[in-house]
Amino acid sequence: MARRLPRKDVVIVGLGWTGSILAYELARTGLDVVAIERGPWRDTASDFNIGTAADELRYAVRQDIFLRPKQETLTMRNNPSQTALPIRKWGSFLPGNGVGGAGVHWNGQTWRFLPDDFRIRSHMIERYGEGILPEGNHIQDWPVSYDDLEPYYDKFERVAGISGKAGNLKGEIQAGGNPFEGARAHEYPTPPMKQGYQQELFTKAATNMGLHPFPRPSANLSAAYTNPYGCSMAPCTYCGFCEWFGCANYSKSSPQTCVLPALIREPSFEARTECEVTKVNLTVDGKMATGVTYVDADGEEWEQPGDLVLVCAFALFNVRLLLLSGIGKPYDPVKDEGVVGRNYAYQTGSGSTGFFEDVKFNPFAAAGSTGVALDDYNSDNFDHGPHGFVGGASITCAHTNGRPIRYHPTPKGTPGWGSAWKKAVRDSYQRVANVGAQGSVMSYRNNYLDLDPTYKDALGRPLMRMTFDYQPNEQKMANWMAERCDEIAKAMGAKATQINKLGVPWNVVPYQTTHNTGGAVMGNDPTSSVLNRYLQSWDVPNVFVMGASAFPQNAGYNPTGTVGALTYWGLDAILNYLKSPGALVQR
Amino acid sequence: MGEVGDHWHGKKPYRRREQPPGHSGVTRRSLLATAALLITTSGVSARVVTKVLPWKPNEAYPVTPVVPGGYLFFTANEAAMVDAFVDRLIPTDELGPGAKDSGVTTFIDRQLTGPYGGHDWLYMQGPFSKNPLPTQGLQSPLTPRQQYRQGLAALEAHCTATFNRGFVQLSADEQDKLIAAMEKGEVQFQGFSSKALFTAIHTNAIEGYFADPIYGGNRDMAGWKLVGFPGARYDYRDVIDNPNKPYTLPPVGMQGRPAWGVR
Q1: Check: complex ipTM more than 0.90
Q2: Cβ contacts (< 8 Å) between A249 and chain B: which residues?
Q3: pTM score, two decimals?
C-alpha cells in the first residue's frame, strides 16, 4: 500500500524541458515544488563527459540514454483492423528518459510554427473550399494564434539562446532570414551557425531557382551565451555528436545547460529520480486531482499529495498517464467520441539524395542543427489548388554527422557487402548531400492512441496502443515534396540523384522522427479537446498538461520551439490559476 | 496510509543504471570499479536532488575497454565461422583491412556477453506473435546470443549436409554464393532462418568495423580510415571554416591512437 508523503504545492511529472522550466518559474515564486522523474539524474560532466560522449555504438546504436522498452514501450498497428504488437526495440522514434528528457538528445532545430498553421482548418476552407480537406480528417484550428504565442516563443528562444537569422522583424522582411515566418519582436539571441560546403551549394542553387534559403534556427549555439536565468553556454565545435547524444561542450540547449543550474538553487525545489508516476490521483467525484502515486527504484509505492499536478512527460506518455488516471473521456474511433488519445499525428520524411563528384563535404563536421532550409513549400506558402493536398514541408539541406556505423551511404544498386560494397562506401562518404522534406501530418479519425488489451509494462499496467498510418493526403504531399527536393539536388550539381519517397505503410523499424504529437490536444471545444486553450484539463482544473501532446495536428517543423512557447504560455495561465483556482475557461 | 517524514530519503542504496554495452562482465578494470564506488557513495544525493547539482568531479561512466584474446561466448568453431563469414562481408583487399583483420569477431563476441546479447533492455514480454506485420519490427523471442548459437549450428549443419565440409572449409567463392543465398532467404536451414542469421552477422559486422576501437573491432581504426572519419576529435571548427578541403589529421578513438603509445 502506498505510503503518503508530506503535501507539496506543485507536483511535476517528468523533468525535461517543460517540467524544468515550470519547476523553476514556480519554485522562484516560493511554492514548494517536487519533480518526479522515472529515469536517472543526468549531468553534462558525469553523463556526457567529453571522454565518453563521442561513442556512436553506445548512444546511437545501443540507445544507452533512451527510455528502455523493457521499462515502457507501446504497441503499434497501422489500422484498427489489425492486432497491435509491442515495439520491442525503438526504431521509428526514440523517446528520451531521465532528467532532461528528449531535450538531452535532440538535434536542436528550434522553429516557430507559421501563423497559418494555427488556423489551418479555417484558412484552407477560406482559400480553397471545404473540398480540399482530406477524407476522415480531424483537422482543427488551434485555440491560440501565432500572435498569442509570439512573446512566449521569444521567451523560450532567449532561455535556449537560439542561433538564427530573423526573416521578419516587426513586419519588415530581413535579408538572409526566412521571409515566410511570422513577425518577430526580436532578432535571435545568437547569430546563425556556420554551414558546410553542401549548404553553400544548396543556397546558391535554391536562390537561382527563386526560392528563399536561410540558415535554420539552432539550439547548438554559434557563440557563447548567458541566458536570462544566468546559465552560460559555450560555442558549438561542430563535433558531429548531437542527435542521440548529450553534448559535452555545454553548447546544445537543454534543461541541463539552460535551466537546471538555476532551478537547483531554488530551496523549495526537489527532484526525485528513478521514480515512476503510475497515476494522477483524483477526488472521489473525479473533479480534482489530489496528487500522484509513484513507484521508486526499489519497487516501493508512494503517494505524493499536491495542490497542482503538472503533467510534463513526453507527449506519448502524457496521454498514457491521462488514460491510466481516468482524466478525460477516452477516444473511441468507432463512435468518433471522446478525446483522450484523439488526433495522434506524426511527420513525413521524403527527399532526394545527390551524389556529387570532386567534392569534400566532410560530413563529420556538423551539428544537429547545421543546415540551410527553405519554407517556400511549407504550410500554405504556395498554392495548394493544383495539388489537392493539405499541408507542407520545410525543405532542408543538412547533415548532422558523419558517424560511420549508421552513415555510410552508397548508390542504389550497390551490393550490401564484399569488396564492391567497401569500395562504394569509401567513394561515397565525402560526396553525398541530402535534400530532405520534413512534412506535416494531419489528424484523422483512425490515427489514435488507446490502451492495449494484451500487453503490459513491467509494473503490470497496460501499454498504450498506437494506431497510425500515413494517409493518402500525406503520401501525396510527401512525394510531391520529394520531387521538389530532387530539382534542387540536381541544380546543386549532383551527378546522380535518388528520390526518397515516403515509406508506406508506416513501419517501426527505420528511424523517422521523434515528433509524435497529439492525443491530449488543446482546443476551444471540450468534445474535441482534452485541454482548454490554457493547457488546463477541461475535466480536472488543477491538472495542466504540457508538451506536443497538445498539438491538434502536426506542422512541417520540429516541435520543440512550439512546445517551449506553449510552456511559457501555460506558465502565465498557471500563475493566473494560482491567484484564483478554478477552470480558466468555462465549458 | 501512514504519514512518512523526511527520514525516508535515501534509506536504500542507490542503484545506478545498468551496465553500458561494452561491459563484458569479465574484463572489469579498476577504472570502472572506481567509478562504481563513487556512484555508491554519492547515491543518496543522486536519488533525491535538491539545492546542489549531484555530480562529483571525475564522475563519469566509461565503457570497459575490450581486451582482445580468446572468446567469452563463441566456441572455437563458432569463432572460426564468424571470422570466415565477416571476412567475406568486409574483405581485406587493396583498400585495406577488412572485418576479420580488424577484430570484428572479438567485437561481436564481447557484445554478445553484454546486455545487447540478452536483449536486456528490450521489451521481451510475450505473447510473441507467429505472424507479425512486416511493419511491426522485431518480434522474435530469440536473443542475439540464441540467434548466434542456433543460427551458426544450423549453418554448419547445412554445410556438412550439402558440401560435406564445414563453412570454414568452403572456398571463398562457395562462401560468397551461400551468403548471397542467405541474404535473399533463398536457402533453407534446419530450424533457423538463414536470412535472420545473415542479418545478425551483417549488422554486427558493420557495427564492429566502424565502432570505436575500445569495443574490440575497428582495430587501428581501419574502418574509419577507409572512409576518412576522424573519430572522437570533437572539434571541427577549422573544417567548417575551410569548406571543401581534405581533412588530413589521422583519426583518434576515445583512448587516443596507437602513435600516442600504450595507455
Answers
A1: yes
A2: 234
A3: 0.94
